[in-house]
Design a protein that fits this description.
Helix content is about 70%, strand content about 5%. It is mainly alpha-helical.
């Protein structure tokens, strides 16, 4: 009988190499999928790994996709290191976008550019509010944060649909369910002309530095992780596990809301029913492929954005279904789980005794 046996000491080198091996396995399985679908595997891999980086414009679009993924993943990293399982970042992203869009709709022709700060702040507060509901239910009623945060995603989608089909529907939009286009004064500043890359990219990189300092160079960050992973030890040391819960969820919710604000006031420029794009769920993979480390998340966010762009190109140029993006994301996650398991455990044959 084949069984798993814990290794006496897991190799740190193989632990760091696990994401790379997972990527290689994803590529190999992807080749098999392309062949099974009757598509040229070289052409298919080119859509995912070459087209997104072959020009300056392509790199810019890659950064546009990577920015919200990285921002959300940074917040989730704080959550997961605190042993708080926020699975509803997608809903917090949507509510942040709705809150930011509501402020953007107040702008007129003579509105100051300072309204951008109000839009960003509204997005952060919207995401924190939605995550705060999860923290409240977990704190007061011991509700499971996985189920609560996940179910609130669907409520957030309904809130967005109500607004764009109802009060905020553009009367001059030919009955399409969307708000009017935001005034140009509300647009998140772009880094360069001819590119959609905004200052959100700089905010994301600043978040990388802040998360690293907070988690690994401050007493509060240490207390945050201990409060989540070992509540009894945290109480003995004078740390509050309740505080760790609230901080983790509010930080992750605020980050997701910030990503929603940057997206709706940046590349999209209006509220539509299609704002939920799966970023909140994909950021979970980004966080874990990046080993819950802010620097690792930078690389995994870029990789995941390549999957997004590659999936869109494969759909338009190779005639593959839209779900191919999700297939590659899922392959990467399951390959990483398999590699991590084999790093910590080994397979052993054992004979059954009668």
């Amino acid at each position: 009988m084949l069984k798993l046996e814990a290794r006496p000491e897991a190799s740190k080198l193989w632990g760091y190499a696990s994401p790379v091996l997972a990527l290689l396995l994803t590529v190999l399985v992807g080749v098999a999928i392309f062949m099974a679908l009757g598509k040229d595997p070289v052409r298919g891999l080119q859509m995912f790994f070459w087209e997104p980086v072959k020009s300056a414009y392509a790199l810019g679009e890659l950064m546009v996709k990577a920015t919200p993924l990285l921002v959300i993943a940074l917040g989730l990293g704080v959550c997961y290191r605190s042993n708080v399982w926020n699975i509803g970042a997608e809903g917090q992203f949507v509510v942040g976008a709705v809150a930011a869009g509501g402020v953007a709709l107040l702008a007129g022709k003579d509105t100051s550019r300072w309204i951008v700060l109000a839009i960003v702040l509204a997005g952060i507060l919207g995401g924190m509010l939605w995550a705060g509901l999860v923290a409240l239910l977990r704190d007061r009623f011991n509700a499971n944060e996985i189920l609560v945060s996940l179910m609130l995603v669907y409520v957030a989608d309904m809130v967005l649909s109500y607004m764009v089909y109802g009060p905020w529907k553009d009367p001059a939009g030919y009955n399409f369910p969307q708000s009017k286009s935001f005034e140009s004064v509300t647009q998140i500043p772009r880094l360069m002309s001819g590119s959609r890359v905004s200052v959100g990219l700089l905010i994301a990189f600043a978040g990388v530095g802040l998360m690293w300092v907070y988690l690994f160079r401050t007493r509060a960050g240490f207390a945050q992780q201990v409060g989540g992973l070992a509540p009894a030890a945290a109480r003995y040391a004078g740390f509050s596990s309740r505080k760790a819960l609230w901080v983790a969820l509010l930080v992750s919710g605020g980050a997701a809301g910030l990503a929603g604000a940057l997206e709706v006031a940046g590349p999209i420029g209006q509220l539509t029913p299609y704002i939920p794009s799966g970023y909140g769920f994909a950021a979970i993979i980004v966080a874990y492929v990046g080993r819950l480390h802010p620097v690792g998340m930078v690389f995994s966010a870029v990789l995941m954005s390549m999957f997004y762009i590659g999936g869109e190109l494969a759909q338009s140029r190779l005639g593959l279904p839209k779900s191919i993006t999700g297939v590659f994301q899922g392959l990467l996650l399951f390959s990483l789980l398999a590699c991590d398991t084999l790093v910590a455990f080994r397979l052993r044959w054992s004979s059954r005794r009668a």
